Amino acid sequence: MPGWALMLMAALGTGYTLAAAWVFRARYRTAYVPGAVPRSNAAVTLLKPLYGAEPRLVENLATFLEQDHDGPVQVLCGVQRADDPAILAVHELKVRYPDARIDLVIDSTRHGASGKISNLCNMIGSAEHDILILSDSDMAADRDYLARVVAALEAPGVGAVSCLYRGHGEAGFWSRFGAAGIAWQFLPSAAFGVAMGLARPCMGSTIAMHRAVLDSIGGFARFADILADDYAIGEAVWAQGREVAVLGPIVTHGSAEGGLGELWRHELRWGATVRGVVPAAYVSNVMSMPLPLALGAAAFHPAVGLAMVAIACAARFLLAATVDDATGLAPAPLWLLPWRDLFGFAVFVASFFTRKIDWRGNHLRLGAGSGLTTLTETAPQ
C-alpha cells in the first residue's frame, strides 16, 4: 500500500511539474523584455538593511544605482554595530558613485528578536521619499527594476509590490547548488502558485509601498518578533483590502553559501519559516518533488517504480531547462538536478522537526506560527 501511494503521488507530482513548466514558459519567457516599461521620475528611497561582509555586496548594491530611472533615488543603508564590515562596502559605494545619494544609519537599538526589523526601525526615520522599496542585501537588480516596481505600485488597488527572484551562485560549488534550488524548485513553484491564484507571497527580494501604507499597517515595529516578516507585511497589506502585486524574476539572489553545512542551515531556516506561516501549503509542496517520491515507490515496486523515476526525471529536467531559458540564467549544470532534488527533499522532511534556526550566526527559537525568541547573538563578519 505505501508503495502505490508513493507511486500515485509521484505521478501527480510529475503532472504538476509539466504544468508548471508550461505556465512558466507562457508567463515569463517574453514578459520581461528590457525597455518595455517607460522610465519613471518618481522619488524613491531604497532601504538596505546590512549585516556583515557578504560576497559581492558592493556589486549587488551598485545594481540599484545603475537604473534606467529619471527621478531622485536615496539609497539608505543601515547597520547595528559600528564595527560591522558592511560599513566599508557603503564607503566604497560612495567613492564609486560620488553623485549618488547614499546614506548610512548606525544604530544599535533593538526593537525585538529580529535584527533585520530592528535595523529597519532605526533606518526609517532617515527615509526622505514617499515611495519606500525594501530589498535584501544579497539581491542584484535588472536595470529596469525601478521602472517596473514603480509602475506596478501605481496600479489601482495595489498596496505593495513584491517580486520573484532567480538564483545565481557566487561563492563556489555549494552556492551554485543552492542557487539551483532557487531556480529549479522555488521559482517555478512560486510562479505557478501566483498564476493559479493559489499563493499570495510577499518576499524580501522586494517590498515596495508608499509610506502611508507602511504607517497604516503599524510600521516595521509591528513585525519585530516575526521570522517571516516579509510574509507578515504582505498579509497586513492584504488585510486592509489592498493587493500585493507580484512581479516576475527581475532580481537575482546571490547565493553565498560557502559549504554544505551553511547551505543546509539556510534552507532549513527557510523551510521552517514557510512551514510556520502556511503549513498546509508547505505540506502540499511535496507534490513538486516527484523524483524522491518515485524513488520511494521503486523500493516497493521496482519495475513500475523505475519507469516512474525515468518519467519524473524527464519532467524535472524539462522544467529546469524551461526556467533557465526563460530567465536567461543557468545556475548550475543540469546533471546536478537529481542530487538537488534529493537534497531539497531531505530539507523538507527535516524542517518538520526543527525548533531552532540559525540566521547569520544568530541562534533563534521558533515559537507559535513564525514567532521568534533570540537565544544567542554573534558579531557580524
Task: Report on this structure.
This protein has 13 helices and 11 strands. The chain is an alpha/beta fold and 381 residues long. The strands form 3 sheets. It has a 5-stranded mixed β-sheet with strand order 3-2-1-4-7, sandwiched between helices. It has a 3-stranded mixed β-sheet with strand order 5-8-6. A hairpin with a 5-residue loop joins strand 10 (362-366) and strand 11 (372-376). It is globular, with a radius of gyration of 21 Å. It starts with a helix and ends in a 5-residue tail after the last strand. Residues 369-379 have low confidence and may be disordered.
Topology:
Elements: H1 2-28, E1 44-49, H2 57-62, E2 73-79, H3 86-96, E3 101-106, H4 115-123, E4 131-134, E5 139-141, H5 145-153, E6 158-169, H6 173-195, E7 207-210, H7 211-216, H8 229-239, E8 243-255, H9 260-277, H10 279-284, H11 290-300, H12 302-327, H13 337-350, E9 356-359, E10 362-366, E11 372-376
Parallel strand pairs: 1-2, 1-4, 2-3, 6-8
Antiparallel strand pairs: 4-7, 5-8, 9-10, 10-11
